[in-house]
Amino acid sequence: MKAVPLKLDDALFREVEELSKALQTPRNRYINKALEYYNRMMKREILARQLAEESVLCREESMKVLGEFEQLEGSND
Fold first, then answer.
1. Is there a contact between 12 and 19 (Cβ–Cβ < 8 Å)?
2. CA nearest to 38, candidates 49, 28, 27, 46
3. 12-52: per-residue pLDDT in tens?
4. How far, CA to CA in Å, does 66 sit from each of 40, 56, 60, 75?
5. Suppose 30 and one of 19, 20, 43, 54 were both cysteines; which one would form an S-S bond, judging by CB atoms 3.0 to 4.6 Å apart?
6. Domain annotation covers residue 30
7. Into how many domains does the chain fold?
8. DSSP letter string over 3-31?
9. What are phi and psi of 8, to 5 degrees?
10. Residue 77, pLDDT score
11. Cα dihedral 22, 28, 29, 32 sign
12. How deeply is 25 buried, as exposed, middle or buried, from its count of CB atoms within 10 A (0-12, 13-18, 19+)?
């Protein structure tokens, strides 16, 4: 396990202290759980962004293919 020096705003520190005491969880464990949660949320956000970008690319390619099919159908008439 790595030790990381951490500076928190006073208000945030007080909130962490209150919540960790209310949950009867050591401050270190509370902060670790908060960071794990935040990391999961950020990974989801990155994945959603990537999916949105790839969806646009897929849509553009699908429209090209559809156009080519329409041209083929039109030339068969």
1. no
2. 46
3. 999 999 999 999 999 999 999 999 999 999 999 999 999 99
4. 38, 15, 10, 14
5. 20
6. yes
7. 1
8. -------HHHHHHHHHHHHHTT--HHHHH
9. -120, 145
10. 61
11. positive
12. middle
- Which two structure tokens, joined as six digits, stand for 17? 């202290």
Range of the domain at 55: 23-75
d(CA 60, CA 23): 50
The reply to whether 62 falls in a domain is yes
**Residue 8, domain member (yes or no):** no
Tokens of 5: 């020096």
Does the structure show a pLDDT above 80 at 7? yes
Structure tokens at 30: 């509370």
The two tokens of residue 73 are: 């159908």
For the record, the structure tokens of 76 come out as: 């068969």
What letter would DSSP give residue 76? T
Count the helices and strands in the chain (H runs, E runs): 2, 0
